C-alpha cells in the first residue's frame, strides 16, 4: 500500500482506470503515511472521514463510468482556501474556530472533478512569509536534510505545508497561493513542481486575501504533468471574482508535447544578483544548455527594472494587506478578546490574534498609505510596477519563455536569518517580478547542491500562455531527470 503514495497523479489515474486499486485504497495509503510524518507539521486540520467518504463516492462514480478529471486523487488544501464546514485558519490565531458556510471556487472545482481532501495544510500566517515559520500552528519542517546534518530546514513559504506534504508523499498534490513566490519558492526548496498561473486564470473567490492584486492560486505536485492536470481542474472563469478572466481553459496536459524546437529562451542578465551561490549560477547555465540541446534558441535579454522589484513589492503587498486585514476585528467571526469598549476590543483582539510578521506588514502598509506618504511610496511603487510589466512586454517580443533560478539558495535552517527580516524577504528576489507583472511562472526541480538539497529552475511565460510554459517545463524536467527523495520517504 505504501507504494501507492509514490505514484504521480497521472500514474494513479491510470491505475484507478485499470482497476489496479480503488480510490479508498489510495486514500487509506495516504492517511497512513500522514500518521507516520506528523513531525513535519504539514497539516493544521486532517479530514480522514471526509477523505474516505469522498473516496467511496469516487469509486461509485468510476464504476458507473462517470469519473472526473481528478477522480479519487488525494490532495491537501492550503488552509487559505475556505472549505465549507471545515476549520479554515489562514495559519492565524485570529481565525480561531472559523468554519466557513461556503466553499472557495478553486476547491469546489477540484471536488467537482472528483478530488479527495486529506486535510488543510499549514502555511505562513495569512501567507506572509518565505519560510513557513510564522504560522500560529507552528513551523512546517522540510522533509529534506543536509547530508550528514540533522538540522531541521524550512520548506519555504508561504505554501510550505503544501510543498512539504507533496515532497513527503503525504499528498499527491496540493493547492497553493502565490503572492510573491509562495508556490514556486517552496517547490524549489522541497524538490517539487509548482506553477503560479497568470493572474485571473484561477478564481480568488473564497481564498483569504493577502494582497488582492498579486494573489493567485496554483498547484504544487511531483511532476509537470501532474501540475497540468491539477491546473486544468482548478482554473476557469468565475463571475463571483471580478478579476477572473473570461477565457476558455486549454487542455494543459495535451500541451506537453516534448518538442521545443525553435522556441526562443530568454536569459535575463539582471538576475545574476550579488550573493547568489556558484551552484545556482552553474545550474542555471546547465538548464539553458539542456534547452539548447533540445532545439531551443538562447537569447540574452534585459529586464532593467528588476532591481526595483523587491522594494516595489514590499510597498504594494503590505499596503493591500493592511486594507484586507482590517476586516478582522473580533465582531463577526474568529477570535474575540473582550474589552471595556468597542475600540479596546479591536485592539485586544488584534494584539492577541495577529502574529509578529503580520503586524509588521500591517504597520508598513498603513504607513505607506497614510496621507503624508501615499504619493511618495504607494503611487511611486505602482509606477515602477508598470515599468516592470513593460520590461516583460518588450522582452516577450523577442523570446517565448524566460529561464531564471527559482531561489538564491537551497533550504536553510530554522534559526538562520531568524533576526533579519530583510534577508528573509530576499528569498523572493527571483519570483516577485512575475506577480507584479501578473505573468505565469513555474519552478522545476533541476538538481542537488553539494549538501544534497534540491535546487529549482524557474520558467516565466507570456500572460495566459501556460501551454508554452508547461511544454518547456516538461522538457526541462525530462533533461534534469530529478529522481532524488528526502531521507525516510
Distance between the termini: 14 Å
Q: What percentage of amino acids are in beta strands?
A: 5-15%
Going by CATH, the architecture would be Alpha-Beta Complex
What is the assigned CATH homologous superfamily?
Answer: Amidase signature (AS) domain
Describe the largest sheet.
11 strands, mixed
Helix content: 25-40%
Number of domains: 1
Number of strands: 11
Q: Order of strands in the sheet with the most strands?
A: 1-3-2-4-6-5-10-11-9-7-8
Class of secondary structure makeup: alpha/beta
Q: Could you state the order of secondary-structure elements as H and E?
A: HHEHEHEHEHEEHEHEHHHHEHHEEH
In the CATH scheme, the class would be Alpha Beta
Mean pLDDT: 96
Descriptive account of the structure:
It is a single chain. This protein has helices at 9-17, 23-36, 48-63, 105-112, 160-167, 184-190, 224-234, 278-293, 309-324, 342-353, 356-369, 374-395, 421-425, 432-437, 466-480, and strands spanning 43-46, 74-78, 116-121, 173-177, 193-196, 217-221, 264-268, 297-301, 401-405, 441-448, 454-461. The mean pLDDT is 96. It has an 11-stranded mixed beta sheet, with helices on both faces. It is globular, with a radius of gyration of 21 Å. The chain is built from 15 helices and 11 strands. It is an alpha/beta fold and 489 residues long. β2 (74-78), α4 (105-112) and β3 form a beta-alpha-beta unit. It has one domain (2-262, 399-480): Amidase signature (AS) enzymes (Alpha-Beta Complex).
In short:
The chain has 489 residues and is α/β, with parallel strands linked by helices. It has a single domain, classed as Alpha-Beta Complex (Amidase signature (AS) enzymes).
Amino acid at each position: 500500500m505504501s507504494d501507492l503514495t509514490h505514484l504521480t497523479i497521472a500514474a494513479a489515474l491510470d491505475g484507478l482506470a485499470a482497476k489496479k486499486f480503488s480510490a479508498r485504497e489510495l486514500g487509506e495509503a495516504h492517511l497512513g503515511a500522514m500518521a507516520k510524518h506528523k513531525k513535519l507539521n504539514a497539516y493544521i486540520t486532517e479530514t480522514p472521514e471526509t477523505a474516505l467518504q469522498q473516496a467511496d463516492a469516487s469509486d461509485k462514480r468510476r464504476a458507473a463510468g462517470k469519473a472526473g478529471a481528478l477522480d479519487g486523487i488525494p490532495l491537501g488544501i492550503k488552509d487559505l482556501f475556505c472549505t465549507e464546514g471545515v476549520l479554515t485558519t489562514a495559519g492565524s490565531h485570529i481565525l480561531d474556530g472559523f468554519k466557513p458556510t461556503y466553499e472557495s471556487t478553486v476547491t469546489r472545482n477540484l471536488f467537482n472533478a472528483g478530488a479527495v481532501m486529506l486535510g488543510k495544510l499549514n502555511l505562513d500566517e495569512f501567507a506572509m512569509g518565505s519560510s513557513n515559520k510564522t504560522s500560529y500552528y507552528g513551523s512546517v519542517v522540510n522533509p529534506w536534510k543536509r547530508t550528514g546534518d540533522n538540522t531541521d530546514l524550512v520548506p519555504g513559504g508561504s505554501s510550505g505545508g503544501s510543498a512539504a506534504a507533496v515532497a513527503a508523499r503525504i499528498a499527491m498534490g496540493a493547492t497553493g497561493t502565490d503572492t510573491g513566490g509562495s508556490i514556486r519558492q517552496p517547490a524549489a526548496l522541497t524538490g517539487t513542481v509548482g506553477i503560479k498561473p497568470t493572474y485571473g486564470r484561477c478564481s480568488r473567490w473564497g481564498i483569504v486575501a493577502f494582497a488582492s492584486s498579486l494573489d493567485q492560486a496554483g498547484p504544487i505536485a511531483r511532476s509537470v504533468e501532474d501540475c497540468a492536470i491539477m491546473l486544468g481542474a482548478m482554473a476557469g472563469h468565475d463571475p463571483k471574482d471580478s478579476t477572473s478572466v473570461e477565457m476558455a481553459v486549454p487542455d494543459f496536459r495535451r500541451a506537453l508535447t516534448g518538442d521545443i524546437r525553435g522556441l526562443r529562451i530568454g536569459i535575463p542578465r539582471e538576475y545574476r544578483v550579488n550573493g547568489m551561490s556558484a551552484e545556482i549560477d552553474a545550474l542555471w547555465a546547465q538548464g539553458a544548455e539542456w534547452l539548447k540541446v533540445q532545439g531551443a534558441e538562447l537569447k540574452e535579454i534585459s529586464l532593467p527594472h528588476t532591481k526595483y522589484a523587491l522594494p516595489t513589492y514590499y510597498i504594494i503587498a503590505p499596503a493591500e494587506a493592511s486594507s484586507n486585514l482590517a476586516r478582522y476585528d473580533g465582531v463577526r467571526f474568529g477570535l474575540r478578546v473582550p474589552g471595556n469598549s468597542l475600540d479596546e476590543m479591536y485592539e485586544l483582539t488584534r494584539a492577541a490574534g495577529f502574529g509578529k510578521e503580520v503586524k509588521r506588514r500591517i504597520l508598513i502598509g498603513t504607513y505607506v498609505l497614510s496621507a503624508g506618504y501615499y504619493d511618495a511610496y504607494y503611487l511611486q511603487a505602482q509606477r515602477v510596477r508598470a515599468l516592470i510589466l513593460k520590461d516583460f512586454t518588450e522582452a516577450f517580443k523577442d523570446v517565448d519563455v524566460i529561464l531564471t533560478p527559482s531561489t538564491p539558495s537551497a533550504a536553510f535552517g530554522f534559526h538562520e536569518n531568524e533576526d533579519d527580516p530583510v534577508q528573509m524577504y530576499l528569498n523572493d528576489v527571483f519570483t516577485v517580478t512575475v506577480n507584479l507583472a501578473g505573468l505565469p511562472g513555474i519552478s522545476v526541480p533541476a538538481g542537488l547542491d553539494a549538501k544534497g538539497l534540491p535546487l529549482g529552475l524557474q520558467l516565466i511565460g507570456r500572460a495566459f500562455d501556460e501551454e508554452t510554459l508547461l511544454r518547456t517545463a516538461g522538457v526541462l524536467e525530462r533533461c534534469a531527470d530529478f529522481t532524488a527523495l528526502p531521507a525516510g520517504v
